[in-house]
Amino acid sequence: MSDILKNQPLTIALVGNPNTGKSTLFNALTGLKQKVGNYPGVTVERKTGSVEIDGTRHKIIDLPGTYSLNHKKVDERIAYQTLIGEYEYEETPDLAVLVLDSTNLDRNMYLATQVMDLEIPMIVLLNMSDLAEERGIEVDTNTIQKRLGVPVLPIVAKDKGDIQNVRQAIADHDLEAPKPLSWKPQQPLAEAITLITDEWLHPHTDLPDRAHPIEALRLISNNQVSDDFKNHPRREVAEEIIAKAQSQLEDAGENPTAVEVMARYKFIEQCTSNGNGNHRQEESETLSDKIDAVVTHKFLGPVILVAILLLMFQAIFSWAEPFMNLIDLFFVQAGNTVAETLPPGILNDLLVEGIIAGLGGVVIFLPQIMFLFFFISILEGTGYMARAAFVMDGFMTRIGLHGRSVVPLMSGFACAVPGIMAARTIESWSDRLITIMVLPFMACSARLPVYALMISAFVPNENAFGFISMQGLTFFGLYIFGIVMAILAAWVMKMFFTDGESTPFMMELPSYKMPKWSAVFYNMFERGWIFVKEAGKIIMAISIVLWFLASYPKVEVPDSITNSTTTTEASFNAQESASSYKLKHSYAGQIGQFIEPVIKPLGFDWKIGIGLITSFAAREVMVGTLNTIYSVGESGGNTTTLKQKLINDKDPDTGEAVFSTLSAISLMVFFALAMQCMSTLAIVRRETNSWKWPAIMFIYMTALAYICSLVVYQGGQALGW
Amino acid sequence: MSILLSEQKQNGKKTIADVTGPKAARLLEMGLLPGTTVEVIRSAPLGFPIEIKVRGYLLTLRKEEAECIEIE
Fold first, then answer.
1. In this structure, which of A239, A245, A419, A664 has its CB flanked by the most CB atoms within 10 Å?
2. Domain at A3-172, CATH from 3.40.50.300, 1.20.1090.10, 3.60.150.10, 2.130.10.10
3. Nearest Cβ partner for B56 among A103, A257, A393
4. Residue span of the signal peptide, if any (chain B) (predicted)?
5. Does the beta carbon of B4 lie under 8 angstroms from any beta carbon of chain A?
6. Of A525, A545, A526, A631, which Cα lies nearest the Cα of A357?
7. What are A24-55's pLDDT values in tens digits?
């Protein structure tokens, strides 16, 4: 490299198939200096970082892992457009570093030949060279380097010495290197490329010249070209030229869909097989094969998967609990300290009940998110996740979902927030979206306090058929109800969103590996941080609004409620009554009363109405709100439980009980279905990168909840229950 | 006489005769070309997807994908 270019900061793109150890290399090169976000307008994650070599800081873009640059899928399009310098949200890379899996060179080289066509300076890394050697796969680096005409380096991405070699190769790289050798299209394909380039790409598009051959090849092999030019003014011209090129090929006895791919693989086989045509193919059964024989077994496979899911479920449900309690305690303490230190007033209230409580409401999710991603990182890192998807796909496609939907959906039983974050392991966008949209129907742990209260108060503690507890049965029924609704919703949505030509399932089962612990912990903290940073601010903002609604306007509590007492217990009750009075007259209270006519047909009164507003912060807040409202008008010594108060509550006009078993069931049905959780909406916003999907989710789930509760309550009354 | 890969039981290596249909382009890119050797390793519970070995790696295919592949 010339001295002038020596210290110039470069933009380097990491390119490679999924499962090639590209992320490991990215982490090793950048250390902790990386940024994660979304590409604008799409849901593909963008990772960038930097590496310092010989005093110069270079930027590294970790492009999405893809098998091809044929840009049928959005991640392929981003990788392709970035490499040709046509992606408006990304810098044009000066150098491409290709990461190939040495144990699977043929298919990995396919992408390499496509990148070479783009005439971008490149370095080829043959990763997992240790594994290839172990399996007796012969990789002749010299032959490959000679044939490709670019630097080729066998590496193990985990090895520090090898990383040093990669850094050196980047530093030494000649940006003015001659074009890579690569494959050359033969006749009649070359002629077809020239035809499309000269008659279409050159005169009618703005593509840079170096992208012309690959674009021409894509048009030739694509049998649904018209999708590309839907809005192009010269659409007919393009279609005519492409059809002409395709028919030229057909006349010459070639299949336009296959001719390019076959030519590339022919070249690849010359590189990888030392020209003797018959390379490697390890025949002996590897350890991976032996594990697979058990883990993907027709009967054992599902059993093992269920056992693993139960363990994960246990972890996010109960191991996370002590941490959540600690977080809770910490924020309550912090709130108390601030409340006592600052003079009382609006600022004090805002800080304690708005901001500190809101922050606590964000941080409380971290234990569950981090435990879940600890397990997911291990499952992904070992290669088991793909097996789980393989085992479950047959069942899941029957209900409109994907094999990979199982883990996110199971997580949803603990909490929808980590579950929705876990949905990113589903590659296909439509499958991921449907999984996200139905996931909140899973009965999450925040619903339990509401279910428990209503069931203990209104479902008789009797046995059905002599041995099944009615209360237990109701609980179980609510879980099943959630699952059934999720399945129905998935099935309906499948009819609306498909990717057109559905993305193929085709999934690689990578060899089993030991998980890399630093990567597991890194991923765990990264997901936690993304949640705090991106969903946290939305949750904070809504918390403050909800706090405001429940605390303002400030009203004077009448003396009749506050001054009644001599004993301390009674004074405590008087305080409780005062907060009930304040809540009833707050904006939230007013809204609750205002919406009463709307929720009356479901069997709810204004008190429930207030609860529906406040529980948008989190479903379990319903119980606390009812507690506050029902603490009104208690005289000293009379400390009935909330359960008793609900049972005893009478309508002041008619004298009838406000709650019946039927209205309690109606309320539980509503809670099972309604989108009563701002944190879920915030994380859906993050994961879908738009407000559209959380809005749709809120509307359809709440509408469904309303209709089902209406049917339950009105139907029940008509039947005379 | 060729049959579809979707109808193939696990019995040894076969050679691909042709790859056609709507999923052909992607299958070809994954290295499943006419003349390539494939082996069906196993099928998932409920019959599909199937797991195949091709060019030394393992790939899973749903029924509609396996139906695009004719073997000799």
1. A419
2. 3.40.50.300
3. A103
4. none
5. no
6. A545
7. 899 999 987 788 888 887 778 889 999 999 88
